[in-house]
Amino acid sequence: MKWRDKDINEPNVFLEEDFYTNVDKNLKIDETLYENKSNKRPYDKFDKNSRIKFYVILTLIAALVIIIFACIFIKSDREIVKYESMAKEYYKAGNYKEAAVIYEKLYEETGNIEYNIERSNVSRHIEADEIIREASNEVKLGGYEKAIEILLTVNPLDDTTANRVFQIKSQASSKWLSHIEKDIEDKKYQDAKTEIMRFLNLQPNHEQAIEIKKKIDNKLY
């Protein structure tokens, strides 16, 4: 504010024009402050270099996460290939139980239905293998009829299984027919007739058994 001294003895007078001039200046200063405050945004506290560093760090973290997941996937994929090969080797070697365990594990880990199908296929081999072993034990114990009955229930899933069934059944048949022929030699014709009929009931087209039956019939009639 401005005071004028016309005379030292006169009182100072406050001029109205000075008042309005000062008010106008104050208003302009307040408006400038308001504009500066209203134009500020939250992220203005970061300067340009800080924002660049932030984005670089964020990009590096994202890249690292991608690399980690990629490594995990590659490792998992390699493990799957490894166990697939192991299962196939066990299957070829006839180690069906080991192969079934691996296929079941692969199915649990991946959810791939193909592994479940392979497991079911191997399980049928396990069942057939157990039946063949049981039949083989019956042959050793002299239960030829029971051995053949068991073998007739086996589904030959492949050539290996079919050959095993054929060999054991041939062994059981040969020993059973030898026992029948021994009865004929001992003139136990009725016993021989009973046995040969039971044999033909299981294997009606067996040529050797048919010939033995004819021999027995000739002795009896």
TrEMBL record:
Spans through the membrane: 52-74
UniProt xrefs under Gene3D superfamilies: Tetratricopeptide repeat domain
UniProt xrefs under InterPro entries: TPR-like_helical_dom_sf
Source species, domain of life: Bacteria
Keyword list, A-Z: Membrane, Transmembrane, Transmembrane helix
This protein's name: Tetratricopeptide repeat protein
Highest classification ranks of the organism: Bacteria, Bacillati, Bacillota, Clostridia, Peptostreptococcales
